[in-house]
Amino acid sequence: MGTEEQVGGKTASKVAPATGKLGVMVVGLGAVATTMIAGVEAVRRGLAKPIGSLTQMGTIRLGKRTENTSPRIKDFVPLAGLNDLVFTGWDIFEDNVYEAAAHAAVLDARMLDQLKPYLETIKPLPAVFDQYYVKRLNGTHVKKGKNKRDLAEQVRADIQAFKKTVDRVVMIWCASTEIFIEPTAVHESLGAFEKGLENDDIAIAPSQIYAYAALSEGVPFANGAPNLTVDTAAMIELSKRNAAPICGKDFKTGQTMMKTVLAPAFKARMLGVSGWFSTNILGNRDGEVLDDPESFKTKEESKLGSLDYIFQPELYPDLYKELYHKIRINYYPPRGDEKEAWDNIDIFGWMGYPMQIKVNFLCRDSILAAPIALDLVLFMDLAKRSPSLRSIGIQEWLSFYLKSPQAAPGLYPEHDLFIQSMKLKNTLRHIMGADLITHLGLEYYD
Ligand SMILES: NC(=O)c1ccc[n+]([C@@H]2O[C@H](COP(=O)([O-])OP(=O)(O)OC[C@H]3O[C@@H](n4cnc5c(N)ncnc54)[C@H](O)[C@@H]3O)[C@@H](O)[C@H]2O)c1
Question: How far apart are CA 229 and CA 248, in angstroms?
Answer without folding.
Answer: 10
